[in-house]
TrEMBL record:
<dbReference type="InterPro" id="IPR013099">
    <property type="entry name" value="K_chnl_dom"/>
</dbReference>
<keyword id="KW-0407">Ion channel</keyword>
<dbReference type="GO" id="GO:0005886">
    <property type="term" value="C:plasma membrane"/>
</dbReference>
<protein>
    <submittedName>
        <fullName>Ion channel</fullName>
    </submittedName>
</protein>
<dbReference type="Pfam" id="PF07885">
    <property type="entry name" value="Ion_trans_2"/>
</dbReference>
<keyword id="KW-0406">Ion transport</keyword>
<keyword id="KW-0813">Transport</keyword>
<feature type="domain" description="Potassium channel">
    <location>
        <begin position="28"/>
        <end position="98"/>
    </location>
</feature>
<dbReference type="GO" id="GO:0030322">
    <property type="term" value="P:stabilization of membrane potential"/>
</dbReference>
<keyword id="KW-0472">Membrane</keyword>
<dbReference type="GO" id="GO:0022841">
    <property type="term" value="F:potassium ion leak channel activity"/>
</dbReference>
<dbReference type="InterPro" id="IPR003280">
    <property type="entry name" value="2pore_dom_K_chnl"/>
</dbReference>
<keyword id="KW-0812">Transmembrane</keyword>
<keyword id="KW-1133">Transmembrane helix</keyword>
<dbReference type="GO" id="GO:0015271">
    <property type="term" value="F:outward rectifier potassium channel activity"/>
</dbReference>
Length: 107
């Protein structure tokens, strides 16, 4: 039964991610673009801007890179909100997949 539920969960998770993939892609592209803008504004290398965007957006936020200009700080807030949307969407798909897997193995 446990193995059947794992298989069902993976299938439901995959199906859910296929449905929201365009939204996930858009959020990832927005985060990357905002990171590039922050890098340009503060004179960071491109890789540092992308690193900052994804570390900040996924709420890890090590603090090793800090935007200095007011516009870059504003963009950092937008990166944070985008990351919250991304995390929430992935969590929602995971919860939905778990619920569907549980319903499918009850019978």
């Amino acid at each position: 039964m446990a193995n059947q539920m794992r298989v069902r969960f993976r299938l439901e998770l995959w199906n859910g991610l296929k449905v929201v993939w365009p939204i996930l892609s858009a959020l990832l592209l927005i985060m990357a673009a905002l990171g590039i803008l922050v890098a340009r504004l503060d004179g960071w290398p491109l890789g540092d801007g992308l690193y900052f965007a994804f570390v900040s957006g996924l709420t890890i936020g090590y603090g090793d890179l800090v935007p200095k200009s007011p516009l870059a700080r504003t963009l950092a807030i937008a990166i944070g909100f985008t990351g919250i949307l991304l995390t929430g969407l992935v969590a929602a798909v995971g919860v939905q997949a778990l619920n569907a897997a549980l319903r499918g193995t009850e019978s």
